[in-house]
Design a protein that fits this description.
- It contains one helix and 29 strands.
- With about 425 residues, it is mainly beta.
- The strands form seven sheets. The protein has a six-stranded parallel β-sheet, with no helix packed on it.
């Protein structure tokens, strides 16, 4: 068909074919008859002037990239007959403000910048609305069980997302770089959040799931406004850098079952972190550069036996830490640069303190050890800031040193932990 600003598709047409109007930069309005059942792959892709379209009540399938790049499209009406919307269907529709769905009462046609999904759908496929920068609100109805990867990535105007009780999976990068996203309602039923799901959501304040079992790598990385993320009792794993660079004025991890994998939690501004009994491992760089982390408490029944490399490196305000009673090894650079750390008590179980573990901890004055003798590598501590039995010191390799217990310091430390945690 030639290029026209308005096109009326003839009655009796069953489907709009792939690429039928793709790249038509003059098309502003299209009228589709009730006979159409399928809108095929890239049927309207790149129609940059298309502003308005009404999908008739017998359409069942909208295929991949059907309206991708329709950068002038502001409104679309999707009937309840639609049961499949394929990936990328509305990707980069940058002016899309309103999607009208009769089964979702909150979304009337008008100036409401919102989106929902018809009840015939069970999945929001990958890239479906990515790059729709004008959307401000998302309400997902109860039948949706999964939001696939990048479904809403880069929706910078998105402020609030409401998740249903049916949702189980939030896919990789589903809301990545939604820079205006502030609130996520619901989410109680979510069991898995894949990597990068909310990465770069700088204004996100809360996310409070109850059934969460898995948090993927960097799932919340860069969520600098995050106030708290309770980890569900059933949470089994938290991926690398899952909360890296996150900021919180009152952060406390609740419960989870297994370990935190490498670079798991790096939260830049929490005040207090509690590591519960169920945690068996804290990964590499987990709290690295958490500038406002002032206190860490590991549960008195904690089974953590190693603090991995760089776990608390650069936590410049960390002043109090209660170590696991099962701790055996403090890894390289574990506390390097913790300039606010003044007193540290080693549990009796500690056997190894590795290279640079306490390097540049300039304020560290006292190590309390209850008389145990760990193996300490050269360069683990700054010189002159702790009491050691120097006769056991060696010039090369590992050295055995003992620390004198100081009761007054223990009392002072205990009171500070009680006050801060």
């Amino acid at each position: 068909m030639g290029k026209k600003s308005e096109v009326v598709i003839p009655e009796g047409t069953k489907r709009i074919e792939s690429y039928q109007f793709a790249g038509n930069s003059e098309l502003e309005r299209i009228i589709i008859p009730e006979s159409v059942r399928i809108i095929r792959f890239k049927a309207f892709s790149g129609c940059t002037s298309l502003k308005d379209i009404v999908i008739p009540h017998n359409v069942e399938i909208i295929e991949e990239d059907a309206f991708k790049g329709c950068s002038s499209l502001e409104k679309i009406v999707i009937p309840e007959s639609v049961r499949i919307i394929r990936h990328g269907a509305f990707e980069n529709c940058k002016k899309l403000k309103s999607v009208s769905l009769p089964l979702v009462a909150e979304f009337s046609v008008g100036n409401v910048r919102a989106i929902g999904q018809p009840k015939g759908l069970t999945t929001i496929e990958r890239d479906t609305f990515s790059g729709c920068t004008s959307l401000e609100k998302v309400v997902i109805p109860d039948n949706i069980t999964e939001i696939e990867r990048r479904a809403f990535e880069g929706c910078e105007g998105l402020v609030r997302v409401t998740l249903p009780t049916s949702i189980e999976v939030i896919g990789e990068g589903a809301f990545r770089n939604c820079k205006g996203l502030t609130f996520i309602d619901g989410a109680e039923s979510v069991e898995r959040i894949d990597r990068y799901a909310f990465k770069g959501c700088k204004k996100l304040l809360y996310y409070r799931p109850e059934s969460l079992q898995t948090i993927g790598d960097e799932a919340f990385k860069g969520c600098t406004s995050l106030l708290s993320i309770p980890i569900a009792e059933d949470t089994k794993s938290i991926g690398e850098g899952a909360f890296e660079e996150c900021c919180s004025s009152d952060f406390k991890i609740t419960q989870y079952e297994n370990g935190l994998s490498e670079k798991t939690i790096c939260i830049s501004n929490p005040t207090v972190v509690h590591i519960p009994e169920a945690t068996t491992q804290i990964g590499r760089g987990a709290f690295k550069n958490c500038k406002n982390l002032i206190a860490v408490e590991m549960d008195k029944s904690s089974k953590i036996d190693i603090i991995n490399p760089s776990t608390f490196e650069g936590c410049t305000n960390l002043g109090v830490i209660e170590l696991s009673p099962s701790l055996e090894t403090i890894g390289p650079s574990a506390f390097e640069g913790c300039t606010g750390l003044q007193i540290l008590e080693f549990p009796e179980s500690v056997k190894n303190v590795e290279r640079n573990a306490f390097r540049n901890c300039d304020a560290l004055k006292v190590i309390l050890s209850n008389g145990n003798i760990p193996n300490v590598e050269i360069g683990s501590f700054m010189p002159g800031v702790y009491e050691i039995n120097k006769k056991n010191r060696k010039t090369h390799g590992k050295s055995k040193i003992s620390f004198k217990s100081i009761k007054n310091a223990i009392t002072m430390k205990s009171k500070k932990v009680e006050r801060e945690i």
